[in-house]
Amino acid sequence: xxxxxxxxxxxxxxxxxxxxxxxxxxxxxxxxxxxxxxxxxxxxxxxxxxxxxxxxxxxxxxxxxxxxxxxxxxxxxxxxxxxxxxxxxxxxxxxxxxxxxxxxxxxxxxx
Amino acid sequence: xxxxxxxxxxxxxxxxxxxxxxxxxxxxxxxxxxxxxxxxxxxxxxxxxxxxxxxxxxxxxxxxxxxxxxxxxxxxxxxxxxxxxxxxxxxxxxxxxxxxxxxxxxxxxxx
Lengths: 111, 111
Description:
Two copies of one chain form a homodimer.
Chain A: E1 4-6, E2 9-11, H1 22-29, H2 32-43, E3 48-49, H3 59-71, E4 75-80, E5 83-88, H4 90-96, H5 100-106
Antiparallel strand pairs in A: 1-2, 3-5, 4-5
Helix pairs in contact in A: 2-3
């Protein structure tokens, strides 16, 4: 995967959220495992490492899901040492898709 | 398809929106043609017949899309004469998924 060096951290590429369409966002969020990740990050006060979120899939499948979320502009990923950290791009996302994330999170207990 | 008689109108079965999960709703709305239908009904002051909404698919495919939306609790269908009419179940849907429909419709120009 292409990475750039910044301040000694490997930073994978992140799209500008303003270039992301609703179709890509919905394709990312239609998957329940990916919604689970977003819910955990939504609730977390700080960035979370990939391994911290318990998911019912293999590690490589989980990596794929994080990748899809990053490509859809939903999460920011960066390394701290060997840990890949994840944070929701909530402000940027809310600016492009007002109210969508909070509406989805409010309904997330409805399976 | 099973229909019930009510006031001389054939009424196809409609689920209670409160029994519908977010997963089913997102699977319905991830399809751009179905979002197009929902957008048209969202903007329409009155129920709309199936043929009125221009869609880039065959008539039988369109019928399938309307069916998926009905099963997901998003639209109500009923007959007036030989016309199958469609209306958004907006109040019921908003009660179960607060803010979701308006957030999606606000972003619907973002492809």
